[in-house]
Each structure stands twice: as structure tokens, then as C-alpha cells.
Amino acid sequence: MLTPDQARDRAHDIVQRAKAAGADAADAVFAADAALDVSIRLGKLEDIGRSESEDLGLRVFVGQRSASVSTSDLSTAAMDALVERAVAMAREAPEDPWAGLAPADRLLHGITPMLGLDDGGEVSPEQLRDAALEAEDAARAVPGVSNSEGGGASASRSVWALATSHGFAGAYAATGYGVSASVLAGEGSAMQRDYAHSSARLRAHLESPAAIGRRAGEQAVARLNPGRLVSGPATIVYDRRVGGSLVGHMLGAISGQAITRKTSFLLDSLGSQVFAHGITIRDDPHRPHGLRSRPFDGEGLPVSPSEIIEDGMLERWLLDSASARQLGLEPTGHAARGIGGGPGVSTSNVFMEPGHVPLETLIADIESGVYVTELMGGGANGVTGDYSRGAAGFRIENGEITTPVAEFTIAGNVKDMFLAMTPANDLEFRYGVNVPTLRVEGMTVASG
């Protein structure tokens, strides 16, 4: 695999070729990835997979016309053909008044932040196998667990580089590790499944395989013999592993593309109260070792920690350069780039700040409610905010989490849900979007 410096030079070289071939402007992305994963089932090795890839994407501009091409053939002849094809395609493309590179005066210059995303470690298939076995063994050892869908462990390392024709060239490397277990409890048609996993940039930061396995087994057993709910209004409490999806609906609604197309349920909400008072949601691309940390965005702009929601108020849209131009605003450093096509929008490490009460206090006054631990299907309508999800979880009775329930739907409108939301104080950083346990009043439950 190329080093970050070599990857940066590769991207810079193809941009220079594009300029020499007649492009007015260009940018290029180079991405390389190597991954190894091992899966175990019932104590036996089931599969070992290894993948390696190197890809390059080029975007060229001829006036306000643009075209994007990509390839995994990095030979000199292929690069020459790629450049010629891209420039020829751009000359025939329709004009886009918002097209173009990021503002030159906004580009990141100097040393990129050191975020600790790459431990440089080499992991053997045997080490991954042992971690997967340990996770599955711990899950199967939980009384009541009757079968296994398997344990898994993975390791990867990637290098990502971006170069533009107007002065930016940067690259960075990142590693990623994961361990998981998925098991079943009970017998026959009454079986219940659950899972647990841990992901980290650095292998040393992974949760122990045994702890992951125990959690998967205990969660599966806890779901045995679920009952049914009575349809009607209910207070819903979202477990941390599913509550982040609510923030995800908000992030989609404030992306530049949703706003410019006028397809967002938050279209007229900038600067207004969107969440309950006291709720703050931040985006921190500089979080050390963060799963979504990055030193610059997909257009070469600097990134920095920012508030998306401050005391319930919507503070910003998420904008790449094209959507910012269309809205008459500045890009926010949220551009994301794949190998093909132009930039889109993506956040980094998004989290909701914790509230002030523990879970026990959050639910203490709920006479009858639902603690949701799994969501299925459905989602939120991006235009109206109407929300409906299949769910499973546990009853809340007289302030206590009690028996399991399944086969029900929870519904509402996310605009109302945001305003009726209360966070607990139990925030943990496990995912790309992290939230504490969330209580939402005034929702509707429909039993299946």
C-alpha cells in the first residue's frame, strides 16, 4: 500500500495532467484499502476474507461544465486515457452555475491535525480468529443461549488523498478494528436473537472480546418470551444504540442538498428552536482516535469542532461548496467525497451532550412506557418528518424496566419528537453518532 505522501503525489499528478490536457480546473481523490476479516460459528472457523484495492477518481471542469471518471487501473496508459476521456466528457456536459472547486482562500494550508487514526499495527488471521472465538465462546456461555450466528473480528487500514488544481494536496491513513458476536436464546419459534460489537481506530481501544460476547448473550436471553403492547399513546425511551438514528434524521434534513432542493422538514428552521431547551448536538472532526475523525473535508477545507444544535436552536446547515453557492452562504467544512462523482455532505463524530439525570431518574415517573432497544424498517419522511418504525424492547412499568415486548410500531413526527426529548446523563462514544438514553413524550404505539 502507498504511504500517505505517495498517495498525495499520485492525486496531485493526475490533476496536473488534467490541467495540461485542457481542463480549467480539476480535483482528484486516491483511495487505497486493505482489510482482513475472520468469522467463527459454533467454535469453528467459517470464513477468512482479505481484500485490497486502489482507486482513483478525477473531476475536471471546463468553464461551468464538469465530468467525473474513476479507475482502478493505475498504469500510465490508463491515466492518460482517463484524463482525455474526462476532459472530452466535460466539454459535452451541461453547464452548472454552481459547479466549481472550493473557494481558494478557504483551503487548508500548513500541517494537518494529528488525530491518532493509524496505529500502524499488523494483525494476523490467527489473532483475529482468537478474538472472534473468545467473543462467541463468552456469548454461548451465557445460560439460556441456545445457538449462534457467529463471532467475527476484522482489521483494516486505508489511505485517502485529495489534490486540487488551485492549491491543496493532503492525505492521511487510518486503521479500523472490530469484534462482534450474534447469538440466539430459547428454542424453536420462541427463539430471540441479539448482538454486540465494538469498533475502534486503534486495536488497543477495542472492548474485550469476552465482554462483547457476554453482552450479546445477556441481551438475547433478556428478550425471551416477549409480550404484546396495547396500542395507544406512550412515552418512548430509546436505548443508546438506537437513539442515534433520531439525530441522523435531523442531519439528513439540514444537508445542503436537502435545503437547495427544498425537500427538508427543517427547511425554514435555521436559527429557530428545533430541539427541547438544554439539548446541544456537536460535530467534532478532531476527536482523537474518533471513528469519523478527519483532518480536512472532501474539498480540502479545514474542519473544526462545531455546534449544530445549541440549547435546542438550529445553528447551521451542512454545506459543501456547490450548495453554499446556491444558498449564498459559505461552505461549512462538511463536504464528503467518494471516488466517483462530486462532493456530497457528511458529518464526522456527532454527539448529543449528556443531560443531568441518570437513566433511573429519567424513567422514574413513567407509569406505562416502552424502552426501545431495536428498530426495524421505516424511518422518517425527509419532507414531512412523519416517523414510523417497527421496534422491540421492554415495558416500563411504574418507573421500572420490566418484561420484553416485540412486534409493535412506534410513530410520530420527528419535529414534535425533537421538542419533546429529554437526554439522560449516560453518553458513551461507541458509534459514529452517539447519544445518551433519550426519553420522548407523546408518541403512538401500534401493536402488531
TrEMBL record:
It comes from Sphingomonas aurantiaca. This is PmbA protein. Residues 232-446 form the Metalloprotease TldD/E C-terminal domain. Residues 36-90 form the Metalloprotease TldD/E N-terminal domain. Residues 120-224 form the Metalloprotease TldD/E central domain. Belongs to the peptidase U62 family. GO terms for molecular function: metallopeptidase activity. GO terms for cellular component: cytosol.
